[in-house]
Amino acid sequence: MTKGIKILIIALGIGAIVGAGYVLWKIFLSQPSENILGGITQEEVEVTHKLSAITNDQIFDYWVNKKNGEIYFISENGHISKVLSNGTSQLISDQNIASLSYIKPSFDGTMALVAFGYPQKLTFAIYNVNANNWQSLAADTAAAAWDPVSNNRLAYIKNGTSVSRLNLLTINDQKSKEVLRLSQKDLDLDWILKDVIYLKERPSRQILGSIWSYDINAKTIKTLIKEESGLMVRWAPTGNTGIKWAGALAVIDKNNTALSAIGLQTIPTKCAYGSLRIYCAAPTEQVNISNTIFPDEYMKKSVRFRDDIHLISLLNLGKQPELLNIKILDGESTIMPIEAEHLEIVDDKLIFLNRYDKNLYTLEL
Q: Which residues of 158-197 are buried (b: 16+ CB within 10 A; e: fewer)?
């Protein structure tokens, strides 16, 4: 009888532990917007992660070769280097390029589109990592974006006297085909979904911006987002959702339906998609955003912030009005001030460019 009682007590104890674990799981994952510590709407549990600088250069921007995980960066003088595993870098192109504007890697990272020469004369060229050579795009190209599934095609806008022309270019034979004429000028491009190209106005809080979607197969164009202040979107790699800024940060679906808010004041270019989560860099002093013309002054680099880095869970996307937010790097605790931009996830690390010292950093996740 005594043995039977002991077995029963042990079983009940194990059951209680399992039950308590389930309850905690339900609290943290099923209702992430409720902070059980204080009843507030934003989770602020800080987690310690290892932060390391992986370069010692004046870097303009970088990209990742998705075939082998190698990291390439372009310096402010246009030179291109590869980050080596021993913490040093190897110069692979010494082509001098002045007045860099931006870079866009191809879908697998073996090629990069480089824009430069702004504001005098914006010029585009393609760098091929494997061949280590350059190829120019047509003169008067105003914007361009890679096909999301091919290294051999891109879309570009060529400005005319009264209209802008959207073209598709195949790289290997240099054949170009006009697919759309537009009255709008100064547009940029995103190409995320295989058959849909997004045309977007430059973001500014002082000018209402819109985004249009053009269906390549149906040859139709429609307004996706109409006249919103400071409009910016960073689309998920699948194209099904996007991180949107228009005075507040939120996650939308591909039709611009709001799914859930993100309780941070920051912009989508300071965020990166992971598996069922988003990582965002945001100013430590959130109130500082309201004291600036944002995002205009940030993009012109006329204001400086010190950033924290946050993990935002997507487990309850569309089910909760605001997503769970966990601070994983406290900007006040780092020796070198961090103002992170262009975040990317590679394996179990978050990579970003630090505006303060213009070096690349990794944050172990």
A: bbeeeebbbbbbebeeeeeeeebebeeeebbbbbbbeebb
